[in-house]
């Protein structure tokens, strides 16, 4: 797995808990708002009920009105008209029981209501708040017990007796309920987070694979089944497009090689035929040089295409860099390309035995591309120096490496150091603006789906298009081996490319 995937996974591991924590906090805030709303709603309902049922016209006000309106004159009880109206409005009735249990006064009492009471009858009626199955309310007077009754099913009387210990422990019970509710919230949060992470983890892995060009197949169940099918379909479509692109590039490359070989062969024959005029031989040499350039571009295009999305299988082996560089420089000289671009090789003593784990074919290609870059941008000639040196491992925070992880880097432990291949020329160099644009293009190519890393029409496309795929391919080869490249140059003072590869 690449370093980018590791970062994505670490980001997912931290973002999911943060996401669910926010959801839990939002839920708790919502629950708090619900409690606040309920409290105010309860207060409004209580106020409304108090206004409607506990002011004028309620049992207590009716009883008090009858008590105030009932008076005895000359041994006879009389009820004031106002109190009588109150009873009439409530369809209520009233009676007065003296100390002997006899009814000494009544007003509108139903026929089935008793007219005499024993102490036990009075106690039971007062306890249950009913008399003859009608709600009744009792009021103690100096001359007896006033009873005010109402129609059936108008009031419900409730008697409750609680132990004192229950009242004392009531706050603890409330706290216990709150703690249990809070525990339920947290359990629901952790269960939900675990289930969601378990469900989303395959999706994250599939998206990582897609971002790195690897096919992904998801077989999800439940609500995410449709998401899995869509990712699988997208993966299949991308795989078809990549295969079609690779096949197209291979086909075009194959079709170009045959006529290009013939052109280069005839051009080489004309360039070395002394019977041909000098100017024609020079033109044939130009044709041959441009043919070599086209051949290099075709090779670069094929290699860059295979390296896209880490699709290029690396043939890992132990590479003796000094020997490989000598072979590259010798081939340069044998091709007759050193007349205008003489090249020299220098190997530091500490790098004479430098060995890296990688694909020798690709490493060779990277060095050849840097040399070709020097020739291409200095047609008038320049001297090229190749130097091999070694440096200790450059530690990064957290023990990371300089470049993104790769198959070669994953196959080896932390390297003992880096081998540095430095290719420098003393030609025309490059301006700081163009150097910055070239470095930006390399950075884009590390995340772009195409090999160029340069959008057509962008400000940097003109400044860096002349470099072709060469340095982009060098950068990809270095990163595929767990290394990196560095560029430097000054106008009129040459251009330098450093390729750093981890030592085996």
UniProtKB/TrEMBL annotation:
It holds the Pfam family HATPase_c. GO terms for biological process: osmosensory signaling via phosphorelay pathway. GO terms for cellular component: plasma membrane. Gene3D superfamilies: 1.10.287.130, Histidine kinase-like ATPase, C-terminal domain. It catalyses: ATP + protein L-histidine = ADP + protein N-phospho-L-histidine. This is Sensor-like histidine kinase SenX3. It comes from Gordonibacter massiliensis (ex Traore et al. 2017). Keywords: ATP-binding, Kinase, Membrane, Nucleotide-binding, Phosphoprotein, Transferase, Transmembrane, Transmembrane helix, Two-component regulatory system. It comes from the Bacteria.
């Amino acid at each position: 797995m690449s370093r980018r995937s590791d970062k994505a996974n670490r980001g997912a591991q931290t973002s999911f808990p943060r996401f669910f924590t926010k959801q839990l906090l939002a839920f708790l805030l919502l629950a708090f708002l619900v409690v606040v709303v309920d409290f105010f709603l309860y207060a409004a309902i209580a106020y409304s009920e108090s206004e409607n049922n506990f002011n004028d016209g309620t049992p207590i006000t009716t009883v008090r009105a009858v008590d105030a309106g009932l008076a005895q004159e000359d041994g006879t009880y009389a009820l004031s008209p106002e109190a009588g109206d109150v009873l009439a409005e409530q369809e209520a009735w009233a009676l007065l029981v003296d100390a002997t249990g006899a009814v000494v006064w009544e007003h509108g009492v139903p026929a089935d209501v008793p007219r005499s009471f024993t102490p036990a009858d009075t106690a039971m009626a007062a306890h249950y708040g009913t008399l003859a199955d009608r709600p009744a309310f009792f009021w103690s007077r100096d001359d007896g017990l006033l009873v005010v009754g109402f129609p059936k099913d108008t009031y419900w009387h409730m008697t409750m007796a609680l132990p004192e210990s229950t009242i004392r422990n009531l706050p603890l019970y409330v706290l216990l309920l709150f703690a249990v509710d809070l525990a339920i919230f947290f359990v629901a949060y952790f269960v939900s987070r675990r289930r969601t992470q378990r469900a989303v983890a395959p999706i994250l892995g599939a998206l990582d694979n897609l971002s790195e060009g690897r096919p992904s197949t998801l077989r999800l169940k439940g609500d995410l089944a449709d998401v899995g099918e869509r990712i699988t379909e997208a993966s299949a479509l991308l795989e078809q497009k990549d295969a079609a692109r690779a096949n197209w590039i291979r086909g075009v490359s194959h079709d170009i090689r045959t006529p290009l070989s013939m052109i280069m062969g005839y051009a080489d024959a004309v360039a070395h035929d002394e019977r041909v005029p000098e100017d024609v031989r020079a033109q044939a040499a130009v044709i041959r040089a441009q043919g070599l350039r086209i051949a290099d571009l075709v090779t670069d295009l094929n290699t860059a295409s295979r390296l896209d999305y880490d699709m290029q299988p690396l043939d890992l082996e132990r590479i003796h860099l000094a020997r490989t560089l000598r072979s590259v420089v010798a081939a340069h000289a044998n091709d007759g390309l050193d007349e205008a671009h003489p090249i020299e090789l220098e190997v530091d003593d500490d790098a004479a035995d430098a060995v890296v784990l990688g694909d020798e074919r690709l490493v060779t290609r990277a060095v050849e591309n840097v040399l070709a870059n020097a020739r291409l941008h200095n047609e008038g000639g320049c001297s090229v120096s190749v130097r091999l040196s070694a440096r200790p491992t450059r530690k990064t925070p957290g023990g990371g490496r300089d470049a993104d992880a790769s198959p070669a880097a994953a196959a080896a432990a932390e390297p003992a150091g880096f081998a540095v291949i430095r290719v420098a020329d003393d030609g025309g160099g490059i301006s700081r603006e163009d150097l910055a644009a070239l470095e930006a293009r390399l950075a884009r190519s590390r995340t772009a789906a195409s090999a160029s890393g340069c959008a057509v029409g962008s400000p940097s496309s003109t400044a860096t298009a002349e470099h072709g795929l060469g340095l982009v391919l060098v950068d990809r080869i270095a990163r595929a081996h767990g290394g990196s490249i560095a560029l430097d140059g000054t106008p009129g003072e040459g251009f330098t490319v450093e390729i750093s590869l981890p030592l085996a």
